[in-house]
Design goal:
The protein has 185 residues and is mostly helical. Helix content is 37%, strand content 6%. It has helices at 22-32, 36-44, 48-59, 84-100, 106-113, 123-134, and strands at residues 2-5, 13-16, 78-81.
Amino acid sequence: MLIVYSPADGEVERYDIKTLRTSEASIAQKTLGISWAEIQKGIDTDDPEILRGVAYVLKKRAEPTIRYGDFDPIIGELVTKLDKREVADYVKNAFEIAETDGDVSREAVAAVCQRIVPAADDPEHAERIIAEMAEDPKDEPGAEPAEEGSGPLPQESPSNSTETSTSSEQSGSASSPSSSASPPQ
């Protein structure tokens, strides 16, 4: 999961929450005056003060002298987004339902997966992987019919970036999507 900071007067910065160290989580807890469990809940709901606190701690890596009071984004400038790996995992898991449940069509799963597009840091990547997964492998020329539920699903290769980024890089975090972007049940 990424915290994306889009200031009106500057470059977009991305902070990979999964790279947060224990010592940094402790600083975030002290800064915000709440437990890590409360911070996690705040991240899942895009609580602006929680996002500010976590982004501040991650921002200190590049700007060690920044003070908390100096980092005061406008509401809406900080949001959480799913990185490419999280999107790929979500879509793959959703399509596994179509592979194992004959009553669920690939088209229905693709329609449900469209909910994740606005939550993705790279919406075009999300659209592309949904379209690729929606293609029925049985429809490919020369493909032999596979047994129900057999065979590997196409997988997105993880991104190389695992560090906090402050540019337009993508994250390779393997975290799970927020509760608002959970796979269909």
